[in-house]
Amino acid sequence: MAERVFVYVDHYQGEEVGASWEALTAARMIGESLKSEVTALVIGDGVRSLAEAAIQHGAKDAILRESPELKEFRPEPYADVVSQVLKEAGAAVLVLPTTGRTRELAALVGVDLETGVVTDAIAVEMDGEAVVVTRPIYAGKLLSKEVCREKRPQILLVRTRAFERPEPDAGRSGTIEVGVAALEAAATEIVGYKAAEGGVSLTDAAVIVSGGRGVSNNSRLTPPAEITDEKEQEVWRAQQGFELIRQLAEALGAAVGASRAAVDAGYVPYAYQVGQTGKVVSPDLYIACGISGAIQHLAGMRTSKTIVAINRDAEAPIFKLARFGVVGDLYDVVPALTSALKERLGK
Amino acid sequence: MNIVVCVKQTPDTAAAVAVENGKVTWGDAPLVLNPWDEFAVEQALRTKEAHGGTVTAISLGPDGAREALKQALAMGCDSAVLLQDTAFDGADTLVVAKALASAICKMESVDLVFFGRTSVDSDTGLTPAQAARYLTWPSLTLVAAVLGLDPSAKTIEVERMLEEGRQIVRSPLPAVVSVVKEIGEPRYPSFMGIRKASKAEIPTWSAADIGLTGPTAALTWPAVEAPPKVESRCEMITGDTPEAIAAALADRLVEEKVL
Ligand SMILES: Cc1cc2nc3c(=O)[nH]c(=O)nc-3n(C[C@H](O)[C@H](O)[C@H](O)COP(=O)(O)OP(=O)(O)OC[C@H]3O[C@@H](n4cnc5c(N)ncnc54)[C@H](O)[C@@H]3O)c2cc1C
Ligand SMILES: Nc1ncnc2c1ncn2[C@@H]1O[C@H](COP(=O)(O)O)[C@@H](O)[C@H]1O
Questions:
Q1: ipTM computed for the complex
Q2: Are the Cβ atoms of A150 and B182 closer than 8 angstroms?
Q3: On chain B, which terminus has fewer CB atoms closer than 10 Å, C or N?
Q4: pTM for the whole structure
């Protein structure tokens, strides 16, 4: 029997999560070895267009399960459906993109089907029918190979931006198998949402400009007289500095990030933090401004394709990881870089 | 309220981790309470302070895991249990979650279980949700704030951190909660707490004690290696003025097709 390979299409209230198509790439690589095409698994309410999109991105066909109960993502009913479908199909492999939702979903399905779940896959290779996954552990200080030899399906979550994102081909078509989801009423209730702050999402961003403690370090800036507290003066300075960082980010269509020192000192909210206890990012370009390069910060951005460091201290460890370095004051370099790039990008 | 907090012992995040003879080592760097679990302990203690009850810390691990439990006790947990058995050797998250869930079942009428978001060594973030599934309790992961808790109505309302924003969820108790940093700064152990913890007896429960016979891991780890060394190849961009430096850097970024 052909070994069936599945990809799970994640969405936020019906809006596709683009990293799903990266998971599809990994699934197709695995499918090629197992001589199986990839079936997309789409769950929700009013999400047929996602099944079509999955086929356009390279899935052979799709399984669609819809129900009003599935309008809001809740891990329990979603896992019930996924487990049921995979069991009936005799799935060999399930690949998912990585989000807060999919991590939880995969965890539950792993329990239901008593099988292994591997997170943060950055590479896959085949050993017979088994997928050997490479994933970072100890915050990227080591790479571990992990494999689920006997239990099926093998479940893996791929790290965002580790696999190519395919372009859709509107000409592709395939069958969409629609079925009924057998569901028990979920115990939990989604009461509401608070939208995230605007701006480009860090984990998806192709370019990130980050600021660290150095952003507050400019003695030429005089805070308004009414700010007398030293701590508040520092935060005020940092806000001027982060404005420069924001302008550079804007010129590049980039997201803004920060070190923990900048977050802890109250310069920017925690949502900006990159690193071991913040977000793990892997953009094409990461520009670190006034960040020393502590190991916990590197853990969150070391897999960036190109790293640029701007720091006053030529000995800062960040330069060891950087492709390009500037020893200088970020208050001088960042605005100059913003204009230079604007000019070159024709803005 | 009967509250449980699950904690793990991990190497310090600043430790220089390496591979020797196929095994992970961290030299003489200290082992610590998994940093994320400090937030879980903190939230467990705050819940007890607000609603009464007891907090029990559980860890599955080697003898050394007692140190993590002692840290939890020093912060203010009432008791601790160590799950230890050769049957747990080579455990993956399924085995750990199953064992934690079985231990929680053995304790009486637990209302709430707190977890950290992820462990800083194996870094999977799967255990909380998997333990919830074994318990058949709701899984409330990545919780940034507990908005309401009603022990008599047995309900909890939490704010979860999603990539897209915050989500507010209401759930019946018992439930499993994993917390993120925004839940609030963990307290330092008090002097009294440290004294009490150093004298505490921590019972050990075996697989048989929690009704498990040889749980088997689905995953194996055929290899662990150091990532390929990247030669320091930083190209320093210099110039007489910030503008000259910026222009040179912008040119290089364009030449190298970074932009
Ligand atoms: C358990 C644990 C988890 C952690 N998790 C994280 C994490 O997730 N993310 C994280 O980032 N950190 C984390 N840390 C903290 C980490 O160890 C560092 O303390 C932190 O990254 C330092 O931030 P920084 O580089 O901004 O500050 P600093 O180390 O103070 O560096 C500031 C840099 O700015 C430079 N500078 C100063 N002024 C200027 C100027 N005007 N122009 C240019 N350069 C200037 C200085 O030369 C210096 O290199 C964690 C620590 C622990 C213990
Ligand atoms: N061996 C263990 N003993 C107790 N709790 C654990 C153990 N492993 C993981 N946990 C809990 O599960 C959370 C997530 O861990 P992980 O799934 O390993 O990333 C941790 O923050 C702990 O709260």
A1: 0.90
A2: no
A3: C
A4: 0.88
